[in-house]
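Hello Y.,

Per our agreement to keep a running log of every chain we model this quarter, I'm adding this entry. I've kept the format consistent with earlier entries: sequence first, then predicted structure.
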Amino acid sequence: MQTWQVQRTIAKQIQMVKQIGKGRYGEVWMGKWRGEKVAVKVFFTTEEASWFRETEIYQTVLMRHENILGFIAADIKGTGSWTQLYLITDYHENGSLYDYLKSTTLDTKSMLKLAYSSVSGLCHLHTEIFSTQGKPAIAHRDLKSKNILVKKNGTCCIADLGLAVKFISDTNEVDIPPNTRVGTKRYMPPEVLDESLNRNHFQSYIMADMYSFGLILWEIARRCVSGGIVEEYQLPYHDLVPSDPSYEDMREIVCIKKLRPSFPNRWSSDECLRQMGKLMTECWAHNPASRLTALRVKKTLAKMSESQDIKL
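Predicted structure for the entry above:
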């Protein structure tokens, strides 16, 4: 029985329980399947390209990883004029990293756990695996705290792969999705904002992801308590651009003024937060070539945990 048949059968067996989210691509529901909770992403018909892309990426060989959202099935339900595109995945009740950080303060261990697990997922995505059934290198292109989910055990998994690009190493081609949707302006690196990104060079997309990841590290670190102090949750650049910034707003701040999120003073007196600050600075460097790779960040966070005697 082909996987598609299996997936269609699964989709028919799911009972929708309640809507838990809404995005520009559609809605997210919590559903029940065989007594287990699952997440069901329902795409607008106009977002078929995103649905198709995300389904395709999730079904890439060797894609499964504990820090990438677990894919269960995809299905199309339709009655001619009316179509519903479903993507069914694991359900994580903590919601997104964005939701989690808004309501939760962290200690050093939980901060390192969130950061390390996120970058482990990103590292898996970015890495090409060579074998008979190899996995291509994949860049996310829309990394932000709303597209990372927090599991029950305090680790993260990366979600929302509708904009991802794949690198076909045999032909040296970049496989770019056909959809018109672009990433989130607030998290766009300078080279995307000023349109200097080399679209034919896969490494450009990888380094663009690393810039966005630097901003995510900043969001996480602010919520870590040190010396009894913690900042309230804020989005990156909250103090520099409007709540729904335009390209122009972002380009002005990021490319022209070359500003980046600022560090609370308390970070300088906490060794771990000081190192986190150094890490994010090296991720969001203006020049893509001088940014750290996901593997480098992963190794550094592992070392930091070791020196703190923290088991990740």
